[in-house]
Every structure is written in structure tokens, then in C-alpha cells.
Design brief:
Elements lengths: L3 H6 L1 H10 L6 H31 L8 H35 L18 E6 L12 H7 L3 E2 L1 H7 L5 E2 L2 H19 L3 E4 L3 E2 L1 H7 L11 E2 L4 E3 L4 H5 L6 E3 L5 E10 L18 E11 L3 H21 L4 E5 L11 E9 L4 E10 L3 H6 L2 E3 L5 E3 L1 E10 L1 H9 L7 E2 L13 E2 L3
Parallel strand pairs: 4-9, 8-14
Antiparallel strand pairs: 1-11, 2-3, 5-7, 6-7, 9-10, 10-16, 11-12, 12-13, 13-16, 14-15, 17-18
Length: about 425
């Protein structure tokens, strides 16, 4: 969230951000509520002060004065009890509105309503020129006994999948490769539990607006996380970190779950838009400095570019426009890898910088070299998410006989195999 003082003093800037991110929020109404809360708090303080004064005077009062003072004290106490629930209700309403306030997009970020107005920054790699009729990933998986879809859907529900045989090992190889890459760059590998408390989802900004995308376990009051960003973002909640401990670089490995609400009937074939997947997420906590977070944003993007390049995947980088980047993001890039069967690029990585918008929600701070306490900046990017990444990997590296060339970077994790073929 944004600093309330900043919102009060920069109303027009915040209104513009609300407009550019297409968020339904009446800022004037929120600020009027803010004023009501300030007045209520002042009234409560004045009444409490008067009540305290009366309480102190009662022991010194005469017998004639004491009953009136006691009566007045009770009357003031009743007023306090009447005002407190009203204040609490208004504070809850105000907090919910504060959670909806967007971050201010960077001046360089493209302005636009939705993904159709995202901007292609560059395209890298040669698309495969097959001398045969290429198959899509579903056909390749089924022909080689590398996956099963129908029975597993009957057992586990729609949009489920079950990888088989060496495809299971290949999926694991992708994640091992990504984690090794991050270890080499100084990241701490973290295995993240998939279940989280509600406050963690508020901490990243997935709540309150994204509830329809998250699975809820009511008996346990827990939620299934859609990305390890949620868990990693709260690991230092409420802490004051010493500046010399920054930046903190985490690589979160976890099973992820998304309801994919609203996407029925589109992009649901095979391994696209499944409900459960596995991901290695890059996550960084750094100093409250725009140049510092800009540097790490580009570094996160570079790392993911290295990963898809070594996997031998043609890709493009797009910069997301304000209407597509999400509430808390200042700037956002996507990497999209080529899918031959669809003759299009598909998103595999999402790289975002959020300045101190998340750390204010979790109250994650650091003490700088001069003793000042500041909210940290946070950033995140995908390292590897499967099975989505497998779609591009399988289709781009297929051979005419249906076998699959294994990228050199994955071969050490596949017992040195260079080709996968049907057993």
C-alpha cells in the first residue's frame, strides 16, 4: 500500500494511478472517511481526557459534589463505548479501501488498458524451421507415454495432468537447472509450504481483489498459494533488518495452485492453464532506493533470459502496460516463449518491481547506515514454472519420429541423456 501521508499530499497523482490502472475506487470518498476517522479519534481523546480529569477529582470532591462527578464520569464512559464500535467499523472500511490503492506506475511504463496494449521490447532466438509436420505438446506427450489426461481428470477434476516416465524426470531437471543457476548468483533456496494464512495474501496484494483465484480450506482457515512470492514476502514481516544484510535474495520452490476462474473454454488444452503446477520463484528484498531496485529488476530479467536461452527457446520480452501490470507494480516485464503449434509466444515468466508497496503491508523495514528506519523495496520474477515451460520446451525440441532433444544444460540432470524417446 501507499503511505497515507503521501496519499493526502499527492491526491491528483494517486487519482491518476487509479485511472491508469483501471481500478474502481473513489479516492475522494476514501479521504472523507479518513477525515471522519481523525475527528472521531479526536472526540474520543477529548472525552477520555475529560473522564480522566473527573476520575482524578472524585477523591478530593466534597460529599455533595461526588455523586454528580460519578454520574458525569459514567455518562462519558457510555459515550466512549458508543463511539468505539463506530470508529472500529470506519477504520475497517478505510483499511479495505487502502488495500485497493495502487502503486504509482513508473513514467517509463507504457500506458494502456489491457494486454493488447503491451509493448514488445525485443525478440530473441530463431524459431524452429521443421522439415516435417510438427506435433503439438499433447500429441507428443501421449504418443510417447509421457503424460495422461483423461483418467487423471476423472480422479482429480478438470485441468489436472499426470506426467509419466522420463517426462517426470525432465520436469525435475528443469527446476534443478533453474535452482543451480540461482545458487550461482547468490540466492538462498527455500522450499515453501503451499498453505498460507490470509494475512500473507494481503501482504503481497493478491487480496482483497484476487480471492476468486485462490483455493480456500475453511476448516483450517488456510489458503493454497499460487506463487512462493506470497510466503517469501512475509518471511520478514514486522522485522527491522540491518542494511548490511540487504539485499536478501530468495529462490522459492513450491507447488502452486490457481483456480483460473473466468478462463473456462479458452487455453485449457493439455498443460495450459492447469490448476496445480510447480515453480521456482525469484524474490528480492533490497534498500529503499529507486536506482537499486531498478538494477535488481533488470538483473532478475537477465537471469530468466539466461534460463530460456540455455533451454534453447525462442522468446520475446514485453513490457506490460499500466492496465495489465497489476495493482502494486511500478514496472513489469513478461518473457514469452515460442509455441510452434500455436504459432505464437506464451508467457512463461513475469518480472515485477513494487518499490515499498508490499513492505508497507507487511511492515518489513531496515535500518540504514545513519540509523533511519525505512520500508524495503521488493521484486519478483519467475525462474521456472512447469508444466507451462514444458509446452515450449517439448514442441521446440521435437524430432520427426516424436523423440525429444534434451538441451545441453539439462543433460547432467538426465543421466547424460541427449534424446528422450518412447519406451
Amino acid at each position: 500500500m501507499l503511505d497515507l501521508k503521501f496519499i493526502r499530499e499527492n491526491t491528483e497523482i494517486v487519482k491518476l494511478a487509479i485511472k491508469e490502472k483501471y481500478i474502481k475506487l473513489d479516492l475522494d470518498k476514501m479521504l472523507l472517511l479518513d477525515q471522519e476517522i481523525v475527528k472521531l479519534k479526536q472526540s474520543l481523546q477529548d472525552i477520555q481526557t475529560e473522564k480522566n480529569t473527573i476520575s482524578k477529582s472524585i477523591p478530593k470532591a466534597t460529599n455533595d459534589e461526588r455523586p454528580n462527578l460519578i454520574s458525569k464520569g459514567k455518562e462519558l464512559g457510555e459515550k466512549i463505548n458508543e463511539l468505539k464500535p463506530t470508529l472500529s467499523e470506519k477504520e475497517d472500511e478505510f483499511q479495505n479501501l487502502m488495500y485497493k490503492i495502487p502503486n504509482i506506475p513508473a513514467p517509463e511504463a507504457p500506458r494502456g488498458k489491457d494486454e493488447s496494449e503491451n509493448v514488445v521490447i525485443k525478440q530473441i532466438g530463431e524459431k524452429p524451421n521443421f522439415k516435417f509436420s510438427p506435433k503439438d505438446h499433447v500429441e507428443l506427450l501421449l504418443n510417447n507415454n509421457w503424460a495422461e489426461f483423461e483418467k487423471i481428470a476423472d480422479v482429480c477434476g478438470s485441468r489436472s495432468y499426470s506426467l509419466r516416465n522420463e517426462m517426470v524426470l525432465l520436469e525435475m531437471a528443469v527446476h534443478q537447472f533453474a535452482m543451480n543457476k540461482l545458487i550461482g548468483k547468490g540466492f538462498t533456496i527455500v522450499s515453501a509450504p503451499s498453505m498460507v494464512r490470509e494475512k500473507a495474501l494481503f501482504g503481497t496484494g493478491h487480496f482483497p481483489s484476487g480471492r476468486d483465484q485462490v483455493y480456500y480450506l475453511p476448516d483450517d482457515d488456510l489458503y493454497l498459494s499460487g506463487t512462493a512470492e506470497v510466503q517469501l514476502n512475509s518471511l520478514h514481516a514486522g522485522e527491522i533488518i540491518n542494511e548490511d544484510k540487504l539485499p536478501i535474495l530468495y529462490a522459492g520452490y513450491s507447488s502452486c495452485f490457481r483456480r483460473e476462474a473466468g478462463s473456462y473454454g479458452k487455453d485449457v488444452r493439455g498443460l495450459i492453464r492447469v490448476h496445480q503446477f510447480t515453480k521456482v520463484e525469484q524474490y528480492i528484498i533490497c534498500k529503499n532506493d529507486f536506482e537499486e531496485s531498478k538494477k535488481w529488476h533488470l538483473e532478475l530479467l537477465k537471469t530468466s533470459e539466461e534460463i530460456v536461452t540455455e533451454l534453447g527457446l525462442p522468446y520475446q520480452i514485453i513490457e506490460c502496460c499500466t492496465g495489465d501490470m497489476g495493482t502494486g507494480k511500478v514496472r513489469m516485464y513478461d518473457i514469452e516463449c515460442w509455441v510452434p503449434s500455436e504459432n505464437k509466444y506464451r508467457e512463461t515468466h513475469s518480472c515485477s518491481t513494487l518499490t515499498d508497496w508490499q513492505s508497507r503491508r507487511t511492515n518489513t523495514r531496515y535500518r540504514d547506515s545513519e540509523g533511519n528506519v525505512k520500508h524495503c523495496h521488493t521484486l519478483n520474477n519467475t525462474a521456472a514454472a512447469t508444466p507451462r515451460l514444458l509446452v515450449s520446451l517439448i514442441e521446440n525440441h521435437q524430432n520427426e519420429d516424436g523423440s525429444l532433444n534434451i538441451p545441453t544444460c539439462l543433460q547432467p540432470f538426465m543421466n547424460g541423456k541427449a534424446i528422450l524417446s518412447k519406451k
